[in-house]
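Consider the following assembly input.
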Amino acid sequence: MPQVTLTVNGKTSTVDVEGRTLLVELLREKLRLTGTHVGCDTSQCGACVVHVDGESVKACTILALQANGSQVTTIEGLAKPDGTLHPMQEAFREYHALQCGFCTPGMVMSAIDLVQKHPDGMSEKEIREGLEGNLCRCTGYHNIVKAIAAAQDVMHGRAQTLAPAAE
Amino acid sequence: MNVVTPFEGIGASVKRKEDLRFLSGRGQYTDDINRPGQTYAAILRSPHAHGRITSIDTAAAAAMPGVVAIFTGADMPDLGGIPCGWQIHNKDGTPMAEPMHPVLAVGKVRFVGDAVAAVIAETRAQAKDAAEAIQVEYEVLPAVATLEAALAPGASLVHDDVAGNICYDWHIGDKAVNEAAFIKAAKVVEFDLVNNRLVPNAMEPRAAIGDYDPTTEDYTLYTTSQNPHVIRLLMGAFVLHLPEHKLRVVAPDVGGGFGSKIFHYAEEAIVTWAAGRVKRPVKWTAERTESFITDAHGRDHVTKARLAMDADGKFLALHVRTLANMGAYLSTFATSVPTYLYATLLSGVYATPTVYAEVKAVFTNTVPVDAYRGAGRPEATFLLERLVDVAAAETGMDRVEIRRRNFIPADAFPYQTPVALQYDSGDYQATLDQALEAAGWAGFEARRAEAKARGRLRGIGISTYVEACGIAPSAVVGSLGARAGLYEVGTIRVHPTGSVTVLTGTHSHGQGHETTFAQLVTDRLGVPLAQVDVVHGDTAKIPFGMGTYGSRSLAVGGSAMVKAMDKIVAKARRIAAHLMEASVEDVEFDRGTFRVAGTDKTRSWAEIALTAYVPHNYPIEELEPGLDETAFYDPKNFTYPGGCHICEVEIEPETGITTVVNFTAVDDVGRVINPMIVEGQVQGGVAQGIGQALLESCVYDSEGQLVSASFMDYQMPRANDLPMVSVATHTTLCTHNPLGVKGCGEVGAIGSPPAVINAVVDALKEYGVRHIEMPATAAKIWGIINASRPAMAAE
């Protein structure tokens, strides 16, 4: 059985996989990182988005073997070791941008990559267009868009702290 | 109401307690659970909509690597069918047709996706590989994929013993009174419409793990359910014949439901039963395509309506005839949706003196249809609010004025409708006024003109609605055919140091109960929110419960908690009276402090809690130790949220693409516990309503193949399809539950679809459009605009 070696959330693992094993299966089944979810079988929903070498990737669309030698970050690896949340995680909580929580890990990982790729900041419309690859059935995206808009200011250093949601 | 600092009680938009685990990847959904020695199930499904199974050959599959067992319907002759929870009676008093729904198909398959065989193997991939190696021979039969096809003379029968494919032919209202009213009418508006079939598509696919302990003969089912106790009851008593004490059902974190996870599904029975056979845990997780072809669908009504009016535009009578698609088998609540959750709402917010409704439920070779967010009330609201707009157009009346003229007045509550329900409270003029103001209704024509100058067609639409939720008084629903009571159960467990665990029979799958319910406790008992935890979803922990659907969790489940807290406070006051050597009547309780009235003698909440569990100085002769109370609450009536939704759209004539540019919702959901969560519920509901109105189309071909069976074919609303949604509330309190709450889970999906379509029709009014069926896709609208272009050019 082929082996894959990759670093996930800072920890390097070598795992036996079948050739057909998807990255998301490796993460969930072999490494027991179940924060990354599977919501569809056509790479449409984005619940499985992780970062591979800093880029957001749908973990259901690549084979585990393709991630050999990569640095992978999942939702479990976002917060600091002392538990301090990433600004995007904090913004999702502050703006009530999650309900059932199932799309949330992929949504957060996509949103972080989206913000990083737009250093000048995004308008509401640009955020909505940027979320093309992520489905949420609970929120209607209203609060997700607001959370990302608030988080980008912190991530780009334009605000020291997250703007509080209106009461 | 009590006030604690910082304010965390009723009315506070506190952040959710559940968020941290979901944001950290520490949620535990069913597929995240693995049991020691676990095997995996794959289900072989029928590729045909209708056929006779002539042979099943599992020999080759059984020899494949990793295969533990293969089961077909023939292996489970002792199992019961999957039951339907609500018996409807025909007009003539006879009961509905209720054909057997076997766990695995026996003899015939009746829809694409019908379960034919289950393979149990060491890995998921091995199970799937082996399922593909099973050889099934079918004699393919003609399929009836639509209501029209199922009702055609000589149509193929889905169930050989159900004549004409009719499940039931039911009615409500006084037919003679109704007919007489039409004779006196100055104007009768006739209107036909379809309520489009939808696929719920919670983001988490269904999953189930069966576990069996051969030493105790205990079974455990982990499942993606909105109501674990209901699943235990239905599966245990009717399908597997297991007594409750030998069957535990756990519904852990569940990734959205919207109704589709209420029902008892075959896969739950398969994995539980199979675990007992192979003596190992068995896990099944749906792939998304499997979800499309097995999760119960929603809506799918075809309706003809007639509205009688007098010369002043007052409604005199409404007559409705609806065909409702049941799919191939009766799902758990399917039969109640087009009857008691639909036709009883056909009075709407209007004082229509007589309503008569006839509903035929029909079997087809499609996935079973059952409750989906709103369940019956969106169908009633869509019909009424489109019909009222058509009536306004045909009489030349203003759309707002025709509604005002026919509203049930605010001083008419309690209001008895002609279709069984008694609304307890509401103020439809007030929610209308607030919405008109918030949406800038008066300034719309200027915006339309401005849009026209940019080459865009702009329209505005309104919907005023009422719904019935907080389901439901047991005696009432029992008299209407429900086979269960619909009370709820709450336990308040005060621990020795004063912190609190709440056990509730409802289930949270996105609604934020862990926060909202904790706020109830904080508000009443004065215990800080951080010291209150809410537990749900496990029949081994929670005494009983009927689960979450029909916006019932707060109205019914929250009321049970209030009753339990009443018992806690009553007992705690007796303990406090003993400690302070006062009479119970003199002990007041407020903000976590017990005080002898008019004195400075006090005892804290923590002191009383500790005394209850360390009863050294205690009235032990007359009071048991402990502070742990359970209450069952059976509601006295449904609750009746209502309100007004206003939608503004722009259409690009060159493409037919509709953009929702403004959406305003003003809802009366009764008392609001957490405004942030209520707004989120309404925004999400509106998104599903806009999805139904503009995007989502569930398409079967004539042979019964679901051609929209993936996210590539079924258009789920994405971020860029939706607007920001302005949400406000206007409160009239529910008069019959202790919290005054009505429910907010479904109002968004109920009020919004007609507001959207009314706006689209308004935008297209220069094209003479009377109605456009949902979803109003770009192709449909482009076709309308394009078809009328030559005529317009010729003018």
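Chain A has five helices and five strands. Ask yourself how this observation constrains the way the partners meet.
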